């Protein structure tokens, strides 16, 4: 058994030596690992290719190429820095110009706003002054309108109503004794003296310009013919107006004439009577007084 084991080991050793010799006889590509072979072959071939091109003068020497590359890089960097600096300066100029323009516009707008505010204050003051003037003029207009109405009522150019009296005169049934203008004048004058505020004859309002005149047998009032019966209406205190009328000289004379000549004569008090406004007449010669001229004591002035 020992002999057989020894023979076996001797045979194994000789076989291993043969295998090692056979492996050493093979080229490196066969025995080298695949990844190592690929790496070495690729790097060797690249170096070989570069060496061949350099030998033929197709590649620059390894010493001059880094300096040129550095010079190109530095030049490019300088161009970039210069361009950036120029652009930054231009942008700064543009920014400064834009900022100055914006500040100028803001100042202009502020000045405009200030002017507008001053104008608003001025207009507000003018508006307050105008409002005060309007209020004053309105008050003056109201007072003037009130005074005008009072004057119109007093002068007969405004329709009025109120309590009063009525006196009716009528021609006699027979005879030639007719009522004339003088009889109606006595009736109107007596009523004015008794305190009448407005008087009308057959609807014709009496004013300072009124006239009662005969034209033949026809009586005209305000140049308008009227026919009997003659109705004289007055507005005033109905409780005392007739009594004062009868006590006056014109009133008592009219009553006496009516009784003597047979005129129809009646009188009555009225709780409400309306008198029309007189027709307006154009003044051709009369002119209004100025403020500096004196007025009569009984003339109505501003209140």
From TrEMBL:
Residue ranges with Low complexity bias: 8-19
Q: In its keyword annotation, does this UniProt entry include Coiled coil? A: yes
Pfam families attached to this UniProt entry: DUF881
Composition skew (Basic and acidic residues), residue ranges: 292-303
> Which Gene3D superfamilies does the record match to this protein?
Protein of unknown function DUF881 (3.30.70.1880)
Entry keyword set: Coiled coil
The UniProt entry's coiled-coil ranges are 106-154
GO cellular component terms listed in the entry, alphabetical order: plasma membrane
Q: Where is the signal peptide?
A: none
- What family does the Swiss-Prot or TrEMBL record give for this protein? Belongs to the UPF0749 family.
Protein name from the UniProt record? Uncharacterized protein YlxW (UPF0749 family)
């Amino acid at each position: 058994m020992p002999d057989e084991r020894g023979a076996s080991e001797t045979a194994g050793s000789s076989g291993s030596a043969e295998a090692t010799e056979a492996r050493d006889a093979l080229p490196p590509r066969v025995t080298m690992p695949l990844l190592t072979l690929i790496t070495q072959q690729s790097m060797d071939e690249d170096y070989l290719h570069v060496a061949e091109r350099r030998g033929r003068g197709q590649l620059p020497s390894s010493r001059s190429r880094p300096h040129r590359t550095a010079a190109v890089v530095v030049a490019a960097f300088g161009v970039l820095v210069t361009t950036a600096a120029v652009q930054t300066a231009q942008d700064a100029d543009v920014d400064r110009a834009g900022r100055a323009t914006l500040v100028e516009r803001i100042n202009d707008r502020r000045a405009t706003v200030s002017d507008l505010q001053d104008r608003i204050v001025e207009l507000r003051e003018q508006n307050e002054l105008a409002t005060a003037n309007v209020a004053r003029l309105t008050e003056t207009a109201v007072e003037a309108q009130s005074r005008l109405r009072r004057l119109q009522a007093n002068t007969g150019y405004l329709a009025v109503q109120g309590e009063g009296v009525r006196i009716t005169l009528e021609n006699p049934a027979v005879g030639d004794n007719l009522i004339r203008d003088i009889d109606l004048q006595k009736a109107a004058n007596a009523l004015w003296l008794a305190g009448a505020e407005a008087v009308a004859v057959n609807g014709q309002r009496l004013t300072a310009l009124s006239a009662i005149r005969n034209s033949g047998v026809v009586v005209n009032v305000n140049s308008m013919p009227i026919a009997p019966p003659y109705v004289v209406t007055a507005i005033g205190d109905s409780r005392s107006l007739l009594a004062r009328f009868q006590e006056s000289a014109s009133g008592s004379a009219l009553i006496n004439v009516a009784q003597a000549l047979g005129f129809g004569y009646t009188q009555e008090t009225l709780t409400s009577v309306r008198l029309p406004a007189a027709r307006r007449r154009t003044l051709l010669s009369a002119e209004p007084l100025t403020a500096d001229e004196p007025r009569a004591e009984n003339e109505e002035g501003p209140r």
